[in-house]
Amino acid sequence: MSDSKDMLQDLFDKQMSLNRRIGVNPSEMSEEEQTKWVLNYTRAASQEMAELIDSVPWKWWAKYQEFDLQNAKVEVVDLFHFIISLAQVLGMDAQDVHDLYNKKNKLNFKRQDDGYAVKDENDNRELG
Question: What DSSP designation does 128 have?
Answer without folding.
Answer: -
